[in-house]
Amino acid sequence: MELTKDKSRHHHGNLHAALVEAGIEILRSSGLDALSLRKCAALAGVSHAAPAHHFGNLEGLKWAIAEEAFARFSEFMRTHAAASDDTAHGRLLGICRGYLAFARAEPALYEMIFCLQRKEPESKRDASTSYGILRDTCAPFVPPGTDPVIIETQVWSLVHGFALLELHGRLGDTPPPDDAILALLRHIGQEPA
Amino acid sequence: MELTKDKSRHHHGNLHAALVEAGIEILRSSGLDALSLRKCAALAGVSHAAPAHHFGNLEGLKWAIAEEAFARFSEFMRTHAAASDDTAHGRLLGICRGYLAFARAEPALYEMIFCLQRKEPESKRDASTSYGILRDTCAPFVPPGTDPVIIETQVWSLVHGFALLELHGRLGDTPPPDDAILALLRHIGQEPA
DNA sequence: ATCGAATCTTTACAGTGTAAACTTGACACC
DNA sequence: GGTGTCAAGTTTACACTGTAAAGATTCGAT
Fold first, then answer.
1. For residue A158, which of B188, B77, B94 has the smallest C-alpha distance?
2. Neighbours of B97 (CB within 10 A)
3. Distance of alpha carbon B70 from alpha carbon B65, whole angstroms
4. For residues A61 and A73, what is the distance between their CA atoms, to the nearest angstrom?
5. Shortest alpha-carbon distance between residue B28 and chain A (Å)
6. How far is CA A182 from CA A90, A148, A160, A177, in A?
7. What is the ipTM of this complex?
8. How far apart are CA B127 and CA A60, in angstroms?
9. Terminal-to-terminal C-alpha distance of chain B
């Protein structure tokens, strides 16, 4: 059960990472509702109060896990964008494909991310996160004088909706949502500046 | 604190409704995370185990509250649809406006609904619910040979995305999303059959 | 070598969901 | 009217949770 435990008794070494990894493990095997400070501690082989000392409270642990999840999410999108045509349209389609691929590959982490984002403070949305990637990729499609957030929301929520459909298995034999995404891109309109 | 308590000791009368109302009250005042069986029981003035006897478990209580929330949600959309032009476009725009109005008027209930929907079984999506309204309103826009769920998702997730933006206050002075919804309708395309 | 600070453990407590047994009231039936 | 039956709430009990507080241990700088 225990993941890593070198130094004797106190001073684990990098408990932070071990606890996050334990949390991801629990998410994958038992889902979001099963995640608890005490289970993480047990899986990492430390006392039940150790996580609170590191992350403050349960919310803090969740955010730490989400940070890791966001990093992997971003990586997914970057690789898919790189595998697409090197045009503004191609890159945007690429991150959308990456988005869906991540939701398929890591449903537990995906759920965690999007259950937490509803209380996410603005401060967490800097350029290094997936929001930054989205913003950069959408930028060429934002008409002058329009709030970029309008365009970003159209792309993001559309892909999110399709991801939920897929996770619920309601997208059985219907064609992949490339069509819908491409249609959205056409609708968003003009060529990049 | 107590809402209703007529019959002495046992046999409340309609504890079911009283507990749902208490739950809504808690949601509105303290948010989703504060909702618990025991607090509902206390607010309704019954013993702490009574809710479980009625709803099975916490999940059951949440679904019961969500059912009521969905009813009010549907009502919102129906009235807004009735206040719009009596065309296919008008009705669709109307339910989108109703959607946003509900999210603004009842953020707690809105959050409850959309945190629960991720585990919603297909069986709950019958015609009497808001999904039925959405399906009917979208029907004229579904091209022949296309899975209706594709179109419904485009509308639903777009409006949902804007609702989240608004709840987070990120839609400050930008024009109301009528524009975006209208653009989506144009993109969805052809006139109703 | 010592002192302070960081790291984890121990102990403790209130709140939670939930199962089980018990009590009360309502209602049909004779 | 007495009686049995059943549903609705209550009581009791327990395991699990987050979290605060205080103690033990190790690291690192001085």
1. B188
2. 21
3. 9
4. 18
5. 16
6. 10, 19, 15, 8
7. 0.87
8. 41
9. 55
Domains of chain B, start order: 1-56 (1.10.10.60), 59-188 (1.10.357.10)
Check B160 against A164: CB less than 8 A apart: no
Q: At which residue do the structure tokens 């019958």 appear?
A: B126
Structure tokens at B175: 């024009």
Chain B residues whose C-beta is within 8 A of a chain A C-beta are 111, 115, 118, 122, 147, 149-150, 153-154, 156-158, 160-162, 164-165, 168, 170-171, 174, 177, 180, 183-184, 186-187
> Chain B closest CA to A31's CA: distance in Å?
12
Token pair of B134 as six digits: 């959405």
Q: How far apart are CA A158 and CA B150, in angstroms?
A: 10
Per-residue buried b or exposed e for B143-163, using 16+ beta carbons within 10 Å of the residue's own CB: eeeebebbbbbbbbbbbbbbb
Residues in chain A: 193
d(CA B94, CA B137): 10
How far does Cα B79 stand from its chain's mean position?
14
**B interface test, pick of A117, A134, A157 with most B CB neighbours within 10 Å:** A157
Q: Give pLDDT tens digits for B79-134.
A: 999 999 999 989 999 999 999 999 999 999 999 998 887 777 666 666 667 889 99
**Do residues B46 and B12 make contact, with C-beta atoms less than 8 angstroms apart?**
yes
Asked if A12 and A18 count as a contact pair (C-beta separation under 8 A), the reply is yes
Chain centroid to Cα B22, Å, comes to: 18
Question: Which nt has its C1' nearest the CA of A5?
Answer: C8
A 10 A CB-CB count for A44 gives 25
Q: Which residue of A has its CA nearest to B107?
A: A118
- How many beta carbons lie within 10 A of that of residue A114, not counting itself? 15
- Answer for B54: CB within 7 Å of strand D: yes
Residues A25-38: pLDDT tens digits?
999 999 999 999 99
Task: Return phi, psi of residue B169, to 5°.
Answer: 70, 25
Instruction: For residue A110, give the 3-state DSSP assignment.
Output: helix
Residue with token string 């992949």: A176
